[in-house]
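I hope you will forgive my troubling you with a question about protein structure. The record follows directly beneath this note:
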Amino acid sequence: MAFREEFRPKTQRSLTWMGAPSVGPGLRPVQGVLRAPFATRFAPRMSEVLAASNRREPGSVARALIEGPALDGREREIDLAAADVVRLRIGGDFWAPRPNLEAGADLVVVKADSRLAAERGLALALDQASPERIIAWLPRRPWASRLGGDFARKGGRVLTGPADPWVVLDRVQAAAVAGDDDFGVLALLAGKAVHVVSPGALGGWGLAQDHPSIARRGERSLPQLAAAALIDGVRYFDPFSGRPIDYAAAIRQLGDWRRLVDQDRDLACLAGVAWWKRARVRRFLAPGVRQAPNFKQAGPCIARAKAAAGAVALWPSRAPAGLAEQARAAGVAIRRIEDGFVRSVGLGSDLLPPSSIVIDRRGIYYDAREPSDLEAILAEADFPPELQTRALALVARLRALGMTKYNLAGAGFQRPAAGRVVLVPGQVEDDQSVRLGGGEVKGNLDLVRRVRTFEPDAFLIYKPHPDVEAGNRVGAVPDAEVLAHADRIERQASMPALLDGVDAVHVLTSLTGFEALLRGREVVVHGQPFFCGWGLTRDLMAPARRTRRLNLAELAAGTLILYPRYLDPVTRTPCPPEVLVDRLAQARARPQTRVTLLRWMRRRFETLGGATGPGVPLRPSPDGP
């Protein structure tokens, strides 16, 4: 496929940099210190350095140090990059399991992937500390098992396999590492004392205490190391398109992924996630919890979560009976999953899995009875100027593309000749947002009646909900009853066309109210949706606890950027909203031919056997999503 062929730079081209004219026997491309947690065969490598297979040809980081990175007034830029790595706790395998290390004073870690480095590091550490104060961090190899067993019998601590390096750095004061170990770079950036016990890029520069076998090569400063390891000796690629990016963009994306990893650390299991979207929902999760089992009964679910000292993520509308009550009684944390606000090309009721979800720790955004994570973000978060600028750019992109939650096709809208035009979007009457935030309004017909009372002289347009029109959900109202209060029932015009053509929108809890705000329309709210109560809507019953006044950029930033999760349907990795918007635009632009219809039907049947369709027809991979 042409798009994926552009993902990874050609191997030959990727190696013709930092003075390495060809692949050669002495160099090989590997990931750098800053690397992505999501590895799929559809995603490009995020960072690339040249590693030396022998000591005759230096790798790209070593070459940058040899050449002495010229700071050239970049000191502040480099210091900020290094500080961001430490502050965001990115670099190395930061998504790996959190090691269970007991607290101790002045601990030393020996991190080694070779027997030579391990033996030298342990000998050095034992000269300075008792075994009880030393952590031997070893790979899963036979020699390491024997060495670790001997060290444990002496009273030492042994850590085996991948682990979050920042948890280890939290516990130690010093580290002994091989010369090419990324952990040594992170330890130096974190201000730890470092001993280099075998040759490599780190040794010989006065940055660490070197083993006697390592020759002195000169003097380099910590900023020069940061420049070489994070900037000058590395190439970065956009993890969604494969295009070159700079280190700052890589750091921002890794920071987003780190937050996702930390949010999911204690997730033990799922509950109530429908079979047709289960595989998709798992892809929104951090590595390590993507195989979390889904339960249909409350008892086994709570038992699993309690045994793992973890949380349950449930889909509220399908959660097992009594699960929330049993979880509270057992002291098990609950998280709630729901579709996001830019979902897919097509309806969820047509079994199209979402490309955006939310996972809420407090409540859920449509339940006004209690605060949600979204409400907390809107009430408390800082919205710096750069975030607001990004949010407004995203809103402009959504408007330009005519995007809404489901991105359904439709006709244009011919506005009546004169007068005030008001839109009333229908809803699914048994939807959770209606039940929990609809107040005294009794369904779609009652809403239309109320709007007519509120707008006696307006031209009233009622648009039924697409799920209801498709016959998949509850809420249909006979046309004659609607037209006793409304002037028109609109079934053909697309929602973006309607929103661009009306003066105002009256909603109960419909997301259309939020989409109308993004398009600058007046919005009157009859229920308690998440977007009311912030000073942007005319509210008839907003929650009293919402007292902060927001501008549109702040509301959009919280709702579209900070709160939801998005999934790139091409690389199958969590992504920023801008990436998903571009993918959905590509999907929507593709013609729906008989072939795509047959493919959709085939996926529906394949799902019965455990496969799940990708949700958007984006050149699907041969083996499905």
